[in-house]
Amino acid sequence: MQSVRNSSDKKTWVWIDTSDKLKNALGDISGSSSISVDTEYDSLRYFREVLCLIQIEAERNTYLFDPFDRFSFSFLGEALADNAILKIFHAGDNDIRILKRDYGFTFTNIFDTQKAAAILGCRHLSLPALVLRYLSIEFEKEKKMQRSKWNARPLQEEQILYAVQDTMYLKALHRVLDQELQQKNLKAKVAKLFENMSALTWKEKAFDPHKCKRVKGYEALTELQQACMNRLYRWRFHKAKETNMALFRILSDHYIIDLARTGATSVEMLMETEILSPEKVTLYGQEIVRIIRQCMP
Hints:
There is one protein chain. This protein is of the alpha/beta class. The protein folds into two domains: 4-198, Ribonuclease H-like superfamily/Ribonuclease H (Nucleotidyltransferase, domain 5, 2-Layer Sandwich); 211-295, HRDC domain (DNA polymerase, domain 1). Helix content is 49%, strand content 12%. The chain is built from 14 helices and seven strands. The protein has a seven-stranded mixed beta sheet, sandwiched between helices. Strand 3 (34-42) and strand 4 (50-57) form a beta hairpin. The longest helix has 21 residues, at 223-243. The chain is elongated, with a radius of gyration of 24 Å.
């Protein structure tokens, strides 16, 4: 993937896919007094978020690092931990959690534009809203891009531009916000927030045994059916965790309600209900009917 000039400023973005590009990125990032940092990850299709892209804007270029590639990006840890380099994020809590989880990075000297704007009393905290308010620049970020398949390769041009936009304005935004924080004597207050950000850690999702009771239709089930649904709900959670698939990709809540009502105690009976596709029955049929049998009096 080639470097492309960004028409809105004089920098280029560079997809790191050669040793030379990696070496140049290292020099630029480690020599910058501030860097803008963002990631793209897929939390929609997976149980455990999958990191798909790391974007870092340094002094000369914006660099795109592919976590699926063969290159080691461990050197980024040195820059992220270097107190002499300011790291600028926008709503960076999850970025920090996931980078810590996957690479063991530590973070110092952080500035988060969303948190700074919130302290200043801004009501609209999206990146486009803040860029418009403080920099008088109008740009759009399509929500469908956020939900696109970031784990697919090659990425589409629209995805690349979306990712680059996430770091493009952060340095200019930081300068304006930092000045206003200084004028309003809020630097100490926001510094505590940034310190707390540095300490964030990623935590595995925990099973909530009460969540299924909030599913529409639960109250209409018999006591026996509710017990069956509870077991199916727990099974789905652990199956999603085991396979790293989003819960809905295993079975939707609607299917679990319907399965709890069936009383199907064999794969043949389950197939006859036509609740699940033949593919789902093949994948999970034995486990589902075993759970239903366990619920039978």
